[in-house]
Amino acid sequence: MPAPPILAQDVIALHDRLLAAPGWPRQEPAAPATPLWQSVQANHRNNCLLWAQEDLARRTTVADAEIAANKRAIDRCNQARNDATERVDELLLVALQLVDEASARSDAPLSTVPAGARLNSETAGSMIDRLSILALKVKAMREQTARDDVDEAHRAASRIKLERLQQQRLDLGGCLDALIADAIAGRAYFKVYRQFKMYNDPRFNPALVAERQARG
Question: Quick one: angle between helices 124-145 and 8-19, nearest 10?
Answer without folding.
Answer: 40
